[in-house]
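Ticket #4471: structure export looks truncated?
Reporter: QA, pipeline team
Priority: medium

Steps to reproduce: submit the single chain below to the structure queue and open the exported record.
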Amino acid sequence: MGTQALIQLGLFLGLLLVLAWPLGRYLAAVMAGTSRVVTGPLGGIERAFYRLAGIKADEEMGWQDYAKAVLLFSLVGVLFVYALQRLQGGLPLNPQGFGAVSPDSAFNTAISFVANTNWQGYVGEATMSYLTQMLALVVQNFVSAATGIAVVFALIRGFARHGAGRLGNFWVDLTRSTLYVLLPLATQIAVLLMGQGVIQNFDGYRTAHSVDVIEYSQPKLDAEGNPVLDATGVPQQEVVKKHEQQLAMGPVASQEAIKMLGTNGGGFFNANSAHPFENPTPLSNLIQMLAIFLIPAALCFAFGREVGDLRQGWAVLGAMTLLFVAFALFAIWAEQQGNPAWHALGVDQQASALQAGGNMEGKETRYGIVASGLFATVTTAASCGAVNAMHDSFTPLGGLVPLWLMQLGEVVFGGVGSGLYGMLVFAVLAVFIAGLMIGRTPEYLGKKIEAFDMKMVAIVILATPVLVLAGTAIAVMTKAGLAGIYNPGGHGFSEVLYAFSSAANNNGSAFAGLGANTPFYNVMLGLAMWFGRFAVIVAVLALAGSLAAKPRLAVTPGTLPTHGPLFVVLLIGSVLLVGALTYVPALALGPIAEHFALWR
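Actual output as written to the record:
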């Protein structure tokens, strides 16, 4: 592990802490309605919106009404995004004249962006009009992130209140997190990115004539979009030759900013943040990584303020940070080891003044291994899914890191809102385990943890593994699922496992060697995204409602402190134990088997 890696990681975490602390205080004040921006002129816009929409802002909701509002709002979003994709051929802001998106792809994409997943089975610059990108996808980038913030504050109120049973008003929480948090921050980040060279325009695509012939091979597809297989079951390839290159244009910076800030991840371009028009410089790369973690980290401080004990927020943030650092260093180390197949051929893979060394396949030379490995860890620790390198080209152990981070439930910082409410569920599990060991009724933040609460915790923890493992099993047992696997063996299995892990945990990144833009995968992954998002949200809100109705218990000498190092270790252990027991058998068939095959 080189000094460069440690410096980059230290700089990233230091800047994150400096930015997240004041934002956490601001978030707590905004969502409580005590911030000056809420009581000032902008508050007039907020109140006018409520009057226009017929929302009674002063009426709070129980958990059932809150959950119904979340589901209704999200369902309407799915229908709107689906319709816009199907009708885009006849709508304006479509300089390339793109036609309607296919029904199965539109279904998948609509759920993907509403569920804050942003899985993209399509090529953005060859499929979506500017209007669809902005009005459908970017809008959902804002409101899906705002939904996550709303839900986590509902859970925080469950811990902070006692004898109430009310969790706030979803429409108020949604509006405030969008108007006062996401919009101003995204605007500032977009300006910073444009300053680094990220494009922002409405021009038609431009054609550049190449000096040399551009020649490449790609899988041959049939009329239904499935790969054509030869007699041995291997996908056939076709050679494409071109003398010119089309350069896609569009309003990229505005989408890039909220895609990162809202931990959405869906890129304007197919290459995502590896594309120089999305992420041109090392500074833009740092800005994007900070944007991904900014709100999840700030929410930890907001949590501490809301429950009246900042140490609680620091404990949760400490557990997240320790897990993140360990995974990031391991990913960078694994990629720096290079590929033993090249070693056998005498290829020099050592880092030097002339080369980055290690496994540079699928990585941009302007970032190298350290920035690529760090970005991969950031984007999968959070439920973002944006990429500046191709995860499918990582070494088996390097690819294991983003895969397992998703399978842990996206709680290592995690998505906007979803990361914290996922980690708080693990905190409840941790105190339950501790209570079993010492023979006491478990408590967390003065709330007794009872049978109903643990049932909701079980649903949250088990919902995504069921979707991941069942979906993977169906895919590798059916002809339609096997048709999309271009790489046989352990790596092909890893690609399928990664796809369902990404979808069910609402990440959106991919081992992109899998041909997933087919009716089978579009429908299967769409269902995984929907239930992976909203089954968890409903259970979290039910837990919040139960906690809010309970009285606060007095602290006694037998109460487990949940703000010290012991609890941090217990919390980390709970996260890793669940992840290991659930997924290690599947991981053994994929990246672990591939590693031993490669290094035998």
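Status: closed, not a bug. The export was complete when the record was re-opened. Leaving a note from the reviewer for reference: The chain has a mean pLDDT of 93.
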